[in-house]
Amino acid sequence: MITHIVFIALKPENKTENALEAKRRIEAMMGKVESLRFIEVGVNFAEEDRAMDLALTARFDDQEGLEAYAVHPVHLEVIEYIKSVAEYTKVVDYED
Questions:
Q1: Which of 3, 7, 20, 65 could bridge 35 with an S-S bond, Cβ 3.0-4.6 Å?
Q2: pTM of the model
Q3: Total structural domains in the chain?
C-alpha cells in the first residue's frame, strides 16, 4: 500500500472559503480516479505559525497507482485549482 500525504498552505485571501472548496474538490476525486483507494482531507484549526491549512491523505495499491493518479485528468483539474489558491505545498509518499 502507498500513502500519499500533502500539506497545503493557502494564500491569505479568502482562506476559509478556499479551504472548504479545496476540500470539496479533493474529496470529489474518490470514485473518479480508478487507482485511488482512500482519500481524506482535513482543514486545520491550529493557530501555530508552523501550521499548514489543509492536509490530504490518499492511499493506492502500489506506486503505479500513485503514478496514474498524478497524471489523471480529474486530479490535474484539482491541482490547477490548488495552484491558484495555495502559497505552497509539501508532500510525503511512503510504502506501508
A1: 65
A2: 0.93
A3: 1
Nearest Cα residue to 32 out of 53, 56, 58: 58
Whichever domain contains 6, its CATH number is 3.30.70.100
The residue ranges of the chain whose pLDDT is under 70 are none
Instruction: Residue 66: give the domain boundaries.
Output: 2-95
pLDDT score of 16: 95
Q: From CA 50, how far away is CA 59, in angstroms rounded?
A: 25
CA distance 34 to 13: 34
Coil, strand or helix at 88: strand
Asked if residues 64 and 70 have their Cβ atoms less than 8 Å apart, the reply is no
5-15 pLDDT tens trace = 999 999 999 99
